[in-house]
Amino acid sequence: MMTGRGWLDANPARGKEKVEVALRKWGRFNITDDPTNADLVLLVIEGNHLKLGILGQLYDNLLVFPGGSLPDQNSAPLWQGEAKEGFKVLPATKVTEKFQKYVEDLEKKGNH
What we know:
single chain; alpha+beta; three-stranded antiparallel β-sheet; globular
């Protein structure tokens, strides 16, 4: 949906790109487009929240599923998070940073 807000319009391709850029910067995972070769499958959803029929904040949801196949409606995510637009960082980058913190916290606890 286009709102005329430019970079704050929902753009799923941009959301995917920002998640991939953040993951590459982190360096913890290799990226593949083939879910059968993946340890994890990430689903990025970018949209705008509606408030009283008026477009509100841009948001991104990131859902992480076990790899090996594409998730379906019965698949339960291993992790999920949401981030909303900010002044300096798009929500796709922010939600990927939340996922990174979650993984790093698990590693610190010895649950890798």
